[in-house]
Amino acid sequence: MEQSSFNDPTGEYGQYNFPTLDLLKGIKMDPNCVDLQEQEENKERIREVLSNYSVEVKEIIVHIGPAVSLYEIVPQKGVRISKIRNLSHDITDEICLSLAALGVRVIAPMPGKGTIGIEIPNRVPQVVPIREVLGSMAFQESTAKLPMCLGCTVDNEIFVADLTTMPHLLVAGATAKGKSVCLNAIITSLLCKKGPSELKFVLIDPKRVEFGVYSDLEKYYFAKVPGEGKAIISDTERAIKALNCLVQEMENRYSVFEEVRVRNMSEYNLKWFSNLREVCDENGEKKYHYMPYIVCIIDEFSDLILTAGKMVEDPLVSIAQKARAVGIHMIIATQRPSSKVITGLIKGNFPGRIAFAVAQRSDSQIIIDRPGAQQLIGQGDMLFSIDGGVTRLQCPLVETPDIINICDYIKEQEDSDIGHMEPYTLPGHVGKVEGAGSGVNMGGIKDIDPLFEDAVRIIVMGNTASSSSLQRRFEIGYNRANRLMDQMEQAGIVGPAQGSKPRQVLLSPMDIDKLFR
Question: Cys-Cys crosslink for 380: which of 75, 176, 343, 395, Cβ 3.0 to 4.6 Å?
Answer without folding.
Answer: 395
